[in-house]
Amino acid sequence: MKEYDRYVIWLDYFDSELKRTQGRRAPLNSATRAPTLQELSEACRRLNLQPVEQAARYPSSSRDSGYVSVVKAKGQTKQPLVLKVARELSAVRGSAVKKQGPPVRKK
Question: At a CB cut-off of 8 Å and minimum separation 6, what does 49 contact?
């Protein structure tokens, strides 16, 4: 049964490799290259959105994707929420890079 008290936020909304006509909703300057479902879930968790992960395929897409279902806040619309999650997703990706350290160049 459909849950009307939750938003579905697809991973494809944030993929900078996709065009808007292919499902990207975040602007390119906020989008992330090939985000993962775990990164999206962590970004939503940091924003206290109580995410529930689900691996699935985005409608009209042939590649595997996924989504998180998050609790709706009173008076909040989906697009500003997508923009907040996009910014936090960039922060999650940045903190993961810091933990790994800079890439090592081979000579």
Answer: 68, 70, 71, 81, 85
Is there a domain that residue 82 lies in? yes
CATH of the domain at 20: 3.30.56.30
Which residues have a Cβ under 8 Å from the Cβ of 101 and sit 6 or more positions away?
none
The H-or-E segment that residue 87 falls in is: helix 78-100
Domain of residue 14, residue span:
6-98
Euclidean distance between the first and the last CA atom of the chain, given in angstroms as a whole number: 57
How far apart CA 17 and CA 46 sit, in angstroms, is 25
State the pTM of this model: 0.81
Has residue 31 been placed in a domain?
yes
What total number of domains does the chain contain? 1
Residues 34-52 have pLDDT tens digits of 899 999 999 999 999 999 9
